[in-house]
């Protein structure tokens, strides 16, 4: 479940990195801290947290004051508007996959301190960050911010939540490792060979839903470090139907389906409710589609059709099928036979 932006969940360690960027330039960070209502003394409290909106304010102020949208991460500054330029280069892409590929390629023109790469394999899209020089004390802040920026931009471009399958980081667990459950709500691992995050590759095929006017509005501020709390997941219903169709033996209950979707049962039900459907309605629809297909295109016994459609008992299948279609499975098959749609397949 996404936290409210008012909940203090962002580690103060990231603010200390911004303070360090000011120190390296010989500048005073007090104005940036004041803009986010962060008391200077609180910056050095080991377990302190700030809200995501505070993080956005302190970051935006620092980016302008330092004229560096990378906040000191790289060997050269990325002047104000650098990431906006990348966004403009990506907004005309036909799909999210093309937009992210452009972003990765053009990011390499801004700096060669890190490399960003997008790959898709076996239904999983992976965004990988390769560190090409020692980023020093800003290493964690840089890598976390770059991945969060890309996830936020991708979600904004398609106006949809993009649930992560995993996130891994090429550094040891920090003292505030528990905060990663909020920053990257997925299976998180540290001490990995490369920093990367993974999600369903089907999102790459979605068309962009933002235009130049929306981009101009968004770029009035710094490219947000926030990942907006999108409630809509444009692929959720498709993914649910896919698992119900292809894994009926593992989707008898919400727990099995939620595991396949890499989310909690509570989150699954909440997202379905937000889209005005119930899991039972989706299950019924997929089961009846499968049953009708089998009755039309095969000569399987009714008992086997019931099992293949996700029903545990033949009687419950017959009862549900009659309620859904107004006829029994046998009558439906006879009607289909009259139209020549039943084959001899067993």
Would you spell out the secondary-structure blueprint of this structure?
Layout (H helix, E strand, L loop, with lengths): L7 E4 H14 L4 H6 L13 E3 H15 L15 H9 L5 H15 L3 E8 L2 E8 L7 H20 L5 E5 L11 H4 L3 E3 L5 E6 L11 H7 L17 H11 L7 H8 L3 H10 L4 H19 L4 H7 L5 H12 L3 H10 L8
Parallel strand pairs: 5-6
Antiparallel strand pairs: 1-2, 3-4, 4-7, 5-7
List SSEs in N-to-C order: EHHEHHHEEHEHEEHHHHHHHH
Principal-axis shape equals elongated
What is the helix tally?
Answer: 15
- Please tell me the overall pLDDT: 88
**Radius of gyration from the alpha-carbon trace, in angstroms:** 25 Å
- pLDDT < 50 runs, ≥5 residues: 1-5
- Domain count, please report it: 2
The helix fraction, in percent, is 40-55%
Task: Report the β-strand fraction as a percent range.
Answer: 5-15%
End-to-end distance: 46 Å
Given helix and strand content, the structural type is alpha+beta
What does this protein look like?
The chain is an alpha+beta fold and 346 residues long. It has two domains: 211 residues, no CATH class; 103 residues, Homeodomain-like (Arc Repressor Mutant, subunit A), CATH 1.10.10.60. 48% of the residues lie in helices and 11% in strands. It has a five-stranded mixed sheet. A two-stranded antiparallel ribbon has the order 1-2. β5, α7 and β6 form a beta-alpha-beta unit. The longest helix is centred in the middle third of the chain and has 20 residues.
